[in-house]
Fold each of these.
Amino acid sequence: MMSKILVSACLMGHAVRYDGRAKPLVHPAIERWMQEGLIVTICPEMSAGMPVPRPPAEIGDAADGEDVLAGAARVVELTGGDVTEEFLRAAENAVRLAVDSGCRYALLIDGSPSCGSGFIYDGSFSGNRRTGNGVTAAALKRAGIEVFSDREIDRLIERIGVNGTAAGDAGGR
């Protein structure tokens, strides 16, 4: 049996991003995984009670999600509000859902201070990107979930493999 895949709700067409929009990822694999019942959808921020729309947020001081998990960095909104606790709760919710649902993989929207896994923004709200993980992506990785950005869907497909299990995967969790 193939492991399930935790997917950012905005990639599934849900208007849950900070700006009230979706960012749907259209790919034949998504359709197939949906038909096979393998997709588990979450917006970590909404799971923590954050509204839509909401002010843009970034991890401050050019830090990343690992720093936030370690208590060494904060997540702040453009308006100055500190939303670190909400982002930590969001990450905890995502990890719990992934583990409870049998997800071995996650496909997350890149750039987000929560879901970013290839890049995040540098905390200056100037549009500058840096390599790093958001809080949820970092927490999922810590929990042993393999995280892929939306730009890496082909790599996820390769990892999962033709028969539905990755090399060395004895059927998932």
Amino acid sequence: MPVQSKSIYEEALPADGVRVLTTNYWPRGVSRERAGTYKRILGPSRDLLRAYKDGAIDWPAYEAGYLAEMAADDRREEIRRLAELARAETVTVMCMCKDEAICHRRLLRDLISRELEATA
């Protein structure tokens, strides 16, 4: 099954399958039901996110930092769990960003997809 990504503010659709919110901060105005499953551990650390938002680091540095954070054992285990889930149904990872090109959810989607392929 596919692994998708979208903003939590986009319309929830049946095609989303299992919705997984991956933020360190809870988005304003979003109910627990709309978010589906909440995996805070898969969001970027507050320090990394703050450095990027404040302009202390650029997107390539943020991307490298996020991927380094996701290499930790506990995070890799969560990524494996989502890949296993994606074998049976669609998984949609979400955060608050509007532009997927500069958002950790795209990186996470790719990590889950690679794990899915590696364990096929």
Amino acid sequence: MQKILAILPAYNEEASIVDLLKNYESLAQHPDISLNILVVNDGSKDQTAKVVKNFKGSIPLDLLDNDQNGGLGKVLKDGLRYAIHHLKEGDIVITMDADNSHNPHLIPRMVQQIREGSSLVIASRYRQGARSYGLSFFRTCTSFLAGSLFMIFAPVKGVRDYTCGFRAYRLELLKQGFDYFGERLIEEKGFSCMVELLLKLNRFRPICHELPMILRYDLKKGSSKMNVRKTIQTTLAVLWQYRFGNRFK
């Protein structure tokens, strides 16, 4: 059966990740999905690694435990490289946040869209039916404005939400990315890596599709890991490089 690997980059998520893993358990008996979970610990200072190791569930769960904090870009690349080495042609890779703000019950619909022909499916905040709860007005506005800039200056057909990390990838698309870019596939350290990865994969003209997401940031426990000002700066720098630099060639 086609395998689905869900990659969860985690940094200091001991308060939220168990709730997320419990939500995944309801997918354990799904008749059309063979699901595995990979948590990539980004040098957490809390008990994230311990609670993942101690979690008892029916879905196969692995842990990549990094001692040092390297940033979202590094652990995401670690997880995608793991997928390349452990999955086979036709399998699907899911990426999502580990803070319980993304609902894994959307995964069956994302997988179905991949099976219908898409190469990349994004859980979008900007499609009809999407909702966001718990985000500040400032973050909502800056995210929308950033997305608008990218749609104008770095358009990706079928995409409005450039920064959301909840995505489903056809494994072959990720292999194309690693074969062409190698370790350069993800160079950004922070949250801007999601934009970078999308734009680099766009070189291969993937068929992209978006599904409306209900973002529940109000369910997140603990403080945000995002430095909003820095993320804005690095994301705009990625856009500049895409338009005028050599990183995406």
Amino acid sequence: MKKFFTTLSNIWKIEDLRVRITNTLLFLLIYRVGSYIVLPGVNPATLVNQQGKEGIAGLLNMFAGGSFSRASIFALGVMPYISASIVVQLLGIAVPYFAKLQKEGESGRNKLNQWTRYLTIGITALQAIGYLKSQIDPKTQMEIAEPFFTVLNVFVLTAGTMFIMWLGEKITDKGIGNGISLIIMVGIIAALPAAFYSEFVSRNASAGGLVAFIVEIVALIGVVMFTILIVQGTRKIAVQYAKRIVGNKQYGGVRQYIPLKVNAAGVMPIIFAQALMFIPATIASVFPKIASNGILMSLSNYTSWGHNLLFAILIIVFTYFYTAITINPNQMAEDMKKNGGFIPGIKPGRSTAEFIDGVISKITLPGSIFLAIIAIIPAFASLVGVSSAFARFFGGTSLIILVGVVLDTLQQIESHLLMRHYDGLMKTGRIKGRTAIPAGGTGQPVI
């Protein structure tokens, strides 16, 4: 406990880290305040019984931090931006122009970001129309008549999503952690206390309910521990560096390792897959005549077999896709060769790249499958009697995002502490005399 408070004190002593954490908290506070600002022309008193809290609507409400059910200016959250990011990245594979931009470095990324913003505006406008038609009863409109009500609120919802996107970029730039992921995490955490209380009350009201509630808590802790193992699991590849004599000092000559994560893609596959799973519900809301389609209804129900099967497949596909664009075996092999490093028993260069690529392919398959299993656990929890609101924290998108974002943010704080020679929050860095090499492939030891 003493070490914990000492670490907190060290965090506060580092000015840059202190400013970044303060900026992050302020930006997140702005987001939470905005989530309570209701759309113009909507009567907040009539919203409680009108907003869907089950199925896809409930998931949207959770990701938006409750803004969806409150008809807030941030009701659509960041999901349109994530959907646009998915489309742009897929275009980078299918369209030569976008593939060229991906290879142009910083200028290319800026152009891709601009395309993503434009596409976000279009997707948000379409989703805003569907949201207003399906979630806002015309009787809740106060003194604003159609069609001005729809036009005004489509503009407001679009502006709200763009503002959240801007907040996310500012958190990434001026704060700590990934801004978009932190915004999603804060929205999920906001729903956690109410879900715990609701489940406790409902279980306590039934015979033997308290025991069932304790069992649920134990099961939740077990799922959290399993999720942490998947997120933190690594496959270490030994690397040997040749000895070099510079002046009176000897460099290299020790065995180090490359830690390849079992889930190198992090939380992005689950976010991307979830964003695509919102499409059937969006189509049903924009085009009510085809909402009765059996397949569409099945895909819109998050407890159905069709929804969970497609969800799991998308997660596996996006895990491979995002791992492929995140880790470059050729670059890693080239960097090792330049720094005099080699994998014992493997020739430097192309053979090393093929070996690393083979290892990544082998560990990504079980990692993606376990990720998919965690993602669909809430559906099975609902089938055994756990309430819908509480079941979402038994796994799925919410738990993976919470664990992934928290660990990623802690690791960034850790790096700030280690750079200034303070003790870190977690046990990282040197292990039994060895030094970790980042999986990005710089080839330089992390001290």
